[in-house]
Structures are given as C-alpha cells and as structure tokens.
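User: Could you check the structure of this?
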Amino acid sequence: MDCDATDELAARVRSAAQARTPLETRGSGSKAFYGRVVHGEPLAVRQHCGIIDYDPQELVMTARSGTPLKEIEAALAASGQHLPFEPPHFGAGATLGGTLACALAGPARAAVGPVRDFVLGMRILTGDGEVLQFGGRVMKNVAGYDVTRLMVGALGTLGVLLDASLKVLPRPQCELTLTFPMDAREALVRMNDWALTPLPVSATCWVDDTLYARVQGSAAALAEARQQIGGNEFAAGTSFWNAVREHTHPFFASAVPLWRLHVAAESALLDTPGRTLIEWNGAQRWFAPRDATEEVRGHCARCGGFATRFRHARADQDIFAPLPEVLMRVHRELKRTFDPHGILNPGRLYADL
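Assistant: Sure, the predicted structure tokens are below.
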C-alpha cells in the first residue's frame, strides 16, 4: 500500500493547534507502553505509508512513517541488506515512525551505533501544521543533520514524523553464536575485553549464568574468531537474539516492573535483589527487582548513567530519569520552538513537556 496523507495530517494538526486540542500520535500501538500516558485525541498516522524510494546501490531507503517495519525489512532482505541497528518490533504492526520516535535498537547497537546515526533526513509536521524537511537522502548530505537527530527518540513531542531517509547496510555473510557458562562479573570482564579487539563480535548478552556472543562476517573471520575466543556453538542463535530483541525471552515474561539501565560498560553490578539481563558489552542492563525500588536510579547516577522504567510502571510514576534544570530548560525551549501550543504528545516524555 502506498498513500501520501501529508495534507490530511497537516490539516488535522492545524485545526488542533487553533483549538489548542492535545493530540496523541498513533501508529500500530506496538510501543504504546513506552513513556508516560498521553491524554489527547488520537492522530492516526498508519495511513501515511509506503516506500518512497529505495536504491540498493546507494544504500539508502526513504519511507513514510506509517510504513510497517516488516515491509521495510522484507524489501531490504530481497536485496541482501538490512537495518543494522536491528530495531525491535514489539508487535506485528510496528511502523517506521514508532521505531524512530522511540529510538530503540536491538542486540547490534554496541557494534554499529545508535538509531540516529542511520537517519539521513526526514520531513516532519510541527505543532503549527507546517511541513519542515531536514537533512537529505544521501550519506554525504549533512545539512540540518543535528535537527534530524534531535527528532529521533523525542517520542513525537517535537513533531509528527512524515518521512525518513535511512542508511542501510549489506547483511553479514555468515553468523555464529557462541556460549560461555560464567557469572555476571566474569561476563562483564570478558565482554569489555572483546570490545577492545578487532574481533567481529556483533552482539553480546548475559542471562541465567550464560554469556552469549554473536560473531558475524566472512566464513574465514568467523573461524578465526572462534579459535580466539573459544566457547560452545549454539545452534539456536538466531532465535535467541530475536527473543532478546523482541522481549519474548523468558527473562521478560514477569509482570514485575522492568528497568532499563544505561551505564558505562565496565560499571559494577547493581547490588539489589532481582534478575538481570546484560547487553551491549555491559552498557545496557535490564533489571527486574524483587521489590519496587528507587535504588536503581541512584546506582545509575553514581555510574554516570540513567535508568528508565521500561514496562509495568504505575500511572503516577516518572518513566525517564529526572533531568538537571539547565537541560530541562533546553527541552522546554525546543518544545516551544517546534510545538508552540504544546499539543503534540504532551507529557509523553515528562509531565511538563
């Protein structure tokens, strides 16, 4: 399906701006759990969909925000390419817009970089219903690049994403997952050691006293990596990494609050009772405490990081780590610049944004 609904969306936003009516941007709802609850009229963007342009030789794809992620991935796979940051779907109808708004990356994040590094340009609707375009459709065009990066992860609070141009890459030739039985502390040391080498380790994960490492590249590179790091070959590697990415792994099955911790990779483990899954060479840690606790945020702050209540938070709880007043002031100014009437996903990030 291919449909350009720019005019309809712009008219709806302009009308809401005049009436000062809050809007909640909605795609498929696959990531509706992420962030604070928005009280506003729904602004459906799924009808604004379709791949606008794709040139495998240029490694660039441009698509509308309502385009299903699975459609994008299928088109890339047909040309032997993929989205390197391995975005989680969290639902069958996940869209490009929701993927970029949430800026969530999968197991390869530590090896390839964050979502925003692969966004070359985009068109957005401001809170006034004005269409703005930033960046371009080729990798060498960086005009407006900082603004483009700013929109990634803003949860739709600064604008309604219309279209985006993405840098894509060839799929790895070969893949192998290796396992190592060890405790979390030993796993952190091992992961950090690997990160300092040229080994083609594209993903790491520790859970249930086992360290998993994925190596990708040519057959020769995999053979050499296997010889250097050892480990046991894990036949179900592809299924394992998909389960970690999509949170269908048994670790995520519990209904207790789930924290997402971002810390320096070498940071000490959290000394609080609960279950832990560690990714990204130690930089991303999922923590399910036995009891609700605020110790998580204090620990991350001491490590120079931050913690997010990712799932199962109460409606009265803050989701994202509190910001210093100076940084919050910058956020407010950005909000006023792009959404002067405060109608786009108000409160999704913080109560007063």
